[in-house]
Amino acid sequence: ETDTASESSYSFGRIKKSPSSLTNLSSSSGMASLSSVSGSLMSIYSADFGNVDVKGNIQFAIDYVEQLNELHVFICQCKDLAVADVKRQRSDPYVKTYLLPEKYRLGKRKTSVKKKTFNPVYNEILRYKIEKDLLKNQSLNISVWHNDTFGRNSFLGEVELDLGAWDWNDPSNKQINWFPLKPRNCCIRENIFKNICLSRCFIFTGKKTLSTGEVHIWVKECHNLPLLRGNRLNSFIKCTILPDTSRKSRQKTRTVAKTTNPVFNHTMVYDGFRPEDLKEACIELTVWDHNKLANHFLGGLRIGLGTGKSYGTTVDWMDSTSDETALWEKMMNSPNTWIEDTLPLRML
């Protein structure tokens, strides 16, 4: 599984079909027209989760050590884990923890790997050097993985704790407890991406050609973005029209400094769309915290029909939620009209 979430960690897959109808997309800001539509932007946290049915439990405890300014996660053991390698009837499990939404290398910790067991015993402490006040904006994600020799690690289950609601003074919360492992949960429910306005307008491009139009994305503002670095947050938004992932297709807002509620009021325009293209394309908006060393991912949206396919090819990015799909359908059914909505960020 990929453990980084810096801006440079995007991984690009390939699809064989290259829908020519989207090769002339361009932005109104003077960017060159797009020439490649064969790439597909994969999930930022792409991994081979495998087809393992999640089962079993994990035993752990957490505590904040005031003297050290450290969060301690004591991973004790797991029991009754699923079989990851069916052919050899074995699992080689390890446990990984993340502080969310800080899902990059600085927020990741791992235990050792235990070979050939469905009931691994770890008794290991994973430590985070972090101020206690910052934990109110964090969730702790604890996941179990099968370690594969060829790097195709399989997901075996997870537990997620909201540290903002955690009672650190309750003695029972410091005790070692069993928790049932759950299937993958990739949503950040508390972070709201505020007021996305979309419109499309059709114009004629020639005497004998079909009508084409423009998609306008008006990004107004964000609310309640998570703090990753103390009380500093310098955010910006990037936009890509999938399936085109070439750099020339990407547009972004300016960076708004020192606020968790940035106001952008920025419009992005893409032209060259036919009505049928709207059923195959997807607008991906991602929010980033700007840093000199690396830009860190905060969450995103994919606004499309969510059919799982684009021009007949199965793609991972056509995975819009019901709310995202509803917004796209409203836009398709209301040309020349601004369609406004408020949507939650997710981890894509």
Defining traits:
single chain, 348 residues, mainly beta, Immunoglobulin-like, 5-stranded antiparallel β-sheet, 4-stranded antiparallel β-sheet, 1 helix, 21 strands, 41% strand, membrane, cell membrane
CATH topology of the largest domain: Immunoglobulin-like
Query: How many β-strands, per DSSP?
Result: 21
Just name the CATH architecture of the largest domain.
Sandwich
- Binned, the helix content reads under 10%
Average pLDDT number: 76
The SSE order reads: EEEEEEEEEEEEEEEEEEEEHE
Radius of gyration: 22 Å
How would you write the strand order of the largest sheet? 2-16-13-12-21
Report the uncertain regions: 1-48, 186-192, 197-209
How widely separated are the two ends?
15 Å
List the domain count as a whole number.
Answer: 2
CATH superfamily of the largest domain: C2 domain
- Sheet with the most strands, sense and barrel status: 5 strands, antiparallel
Number of helices: 1
Overall outline: globular
Protein name: Synaptotagmin-like protein 2
Organism: Vireo altiloquus
Keywords: Cell membrane, Exocytosis, Membrane, Repeat
GO biological process, one term: exocytosis
Structure, explained:
The radius of gyration is 22 Å and the shape is globular. The protein has one helix at residues 322-333, and strands spanning 12-14, 26-27, 39-41, 57-65, 70-79, 93-100, 108-110, 121-129, 139-146, 154-162, 177-180, 187-203, 212-221, 235-242, 251-252, 263-273, 282-289, 296-303, 309-310, 313-314, 339-346. The longest helix has 12 residues, at 322-333. The two termini are 15 Å apart. Strand 14 (235-242) and strand 15 (251-252) form a beta hairpin. The chain has a five-stranded antiparallel sheet, with helices on one face. A four-stranded antiparallel sheet has the order 8-5-4-11, with no helix packed on it. A four-stranded antiparallel sheet has the order 7-6-9-10, with no helix packed on it. The chain is mainly β. It folds into two domains: 41-180, C2 domain (Immunoglobulin-like, Sandwich); 196-344, Sandwich (Immunoglobulin-like). Mean pLDDT is 76; it is low at 1-48, 186-192 and 197-209. It has one helix and 21 strands. Residues 1-11 have a biased composition (Polar residues). GO terms for molecular function: neurexin family protein binding. It comes from Vireo altiloquus. InterPro entries: C2_dom, C2_domain_sf, Synaptotagmin, SYTL1-5_C2B. It is found in: Cell membrane.
